[in-house]
Amino acid sequence: MARMVAENVSVDFPLYHGSARSLKKTVFARAAGRLGEDSAHRTVVQALRHINFSIGTGDRLGLIGMNGAGKTTLLRTLAGIYEPVAGRVVVDGSVSALLDTQLGMNPELTGRENIMLRGLYSGLSRPRIRQLEEDVQEFAELGEFMDLPVRMYSSGMNVRLGFGLATAIKPQVLLMDEWFLAGDARFMTKASGRLASVVEGAEILVLSSHQNQAIAKWCTRVIWLDHGRVRADGEAKEVLDLYMGQQQAA
Amino acid sequence: MLIQTRGVVQGSLARDLRGGWLILHAGREKAWSWLAPWCDAVAVRQWMEYRPEGMDQALDPAASLLPTHMEVGTSAPAGATTGDRVRQAMADVAGGFGLWRLGLTLGWLDIKLRYRGSMLGPFWLTISTAVWIGAMGALYGLLFHQDLHGYLPFLALSLVLWTALGGLVGDGCNTFLQSEGTIRSMRMPFFVYAIRVVVRTVIALAHNIPVVVVVFALFGAWPGMRALWCVPGFMLWTVDAFAVCIALGSLCARFRDVPPIVASVMQIAFFITPIMWQPQQLGKHNWWLKLNPFNDLLEVVRQPLLGATPSAHIWEAALAFSAAFCVLTAMLFVRVRGRLAFWM
Question: β-strands A229-235, A221-226: how paired?
Answer without folding.
Answer: antiparallel
